[in-house]
Amino acid sequence: MSEPQTSAIGAVAGLGTALLGAQVDALVLGLMAAIMVSIWMEAIDDKLKAGSAALLSSLLAGYGSPKAAAFVAATVPAIGVADDTLRLLMAVCIGAAAPTVIPLAAKWAKGRAGQ
């Protein structure tokens, strides 16, 4: 029998993701990829930056992977991969790329705003 706190936390997390429409498996894969990338990044030097980068990457992977998979399937019809497999691959790619791309985009936008 599981602990009541664990069951309650799981129910709240499941309800939140079901209502918000995120793909739970894509969230998990994006989080794992972001954690792996964040370990080796020099720009992430404390736990707060690492946590926020991993969580933001996970959210982007959860919400963006279905759209990215549909775009790739429409753009490259010869890819011949099942929809679910392509969606999970896109979740890993988004989760791994986001910790690097987001700081670069923020720096670029900051430079553009200063001009």
Q: Kindly, what is the distance between the CA atoms of the first and last residues, rounded to a whole number of angstroms?
A: 61 Å
Q: How many domains? A: 1
Shape: globular
Which regions have little confidence, pLDDT < 50, spanning 5+ residues?
Answer: none
Number of helices: 4
Q: Indicate the structural class.
A: mainly alpha
Q: Could you tell me the mean pLDDT?
A: 81
How large a portion of the residues is in β-strands, by DSSP E? under 5%
Query: What is the CA-based Rg, rounded?
Result: 17 Å
Helix content: over 70%
Task: Give a short account of the largest sheet.
Answer: none
The tally of strands reads 0
One letter per element, helices H and strands E, the order comes to HHHH
What do you see in this structure?
By secondary structure, this protein is mainly α. It has one domain (22-113). Helices cover 82% and strands 0% of the residues. It has helices at residues 4-20, 24-40, 47-75, 83-113. α2 (24-40) packs across α4. 27% of the residues are buried. The model has no long low-confidence stretch (mean pLDDT 81).
